[in-house]
Amino acid sequence: MNIALWVLQGLLALAFITAGAMKVSRSKEELAKNMAWVNSFSRAAVKRIGGLEILGAVGLILPALTGILPRLTPLAAVGLALTMVGAIVTHIRLGELPKAAPSVVLFLLAAIAAYGRLVVSPF
């Protein structure tokens, strides 16, 4: 189970680093071409969301890998799951139900990682 959780954490980290880096590095106008939801948020809020995604991704791997405060790893997974709850609510509020599907999948995977590291195979 430990190996499966590490694989899950790695894939989640990759997904969130990619998404976060895109939000941090691109302009709001450029992001709006593919992500209409950014028009509902300030430029600073979009950058903060991206930064939180990057920090969460790092938190999924680094504490457990280094052995320094490994209990932060499941907390990072909880934080990312909560971020996805916000994304789901935003998509529903904007009437973009089909676009909420990736957020639902990422929420479920982050919740599984959190549960796995809190209960099933803690550090």
Describe this structure in words.
This protein has 123 residues and is mostly helical. It has one domain (2-120). 77% of the residues lie in helices and 0% in strands. The chain has 5 helices and no strands. It has helices at residues 2-25, 28-32, 43-66, 72-93, 101-120. Helix 1 (2-25) runs antiparallel to helix 3 (43-66), helix 3 (43-66) packs antiparallel against helix 4 and helix 4 runs antiparallel to helix 5. The longest helix is centred in the first third of the chain and has 24 residues, at 2-25. The model has no long low-confidence stretch (mean pLDDT 95).
Main sheet: strands, sense, barrel: none
Calculate the terminal CA-CA distance, rounded to whole Å: 12 Å
Number of helices: 5
Which strand-content bin applies to the residues? under 5%
Q: Spans of 5+ residues with little confidence (pLDDT < 50)? A: none
Specify the helix fraction band.
over 70%
List the secondary-structure elements in sequence, H or E: HHHHH
SS class: mainly alpha
The tally of strands reads 0
Number of domains: 1
Summarize model confidence as the mean pLDDT: 95
Shape: globular
Radius of gyration: 15 Å
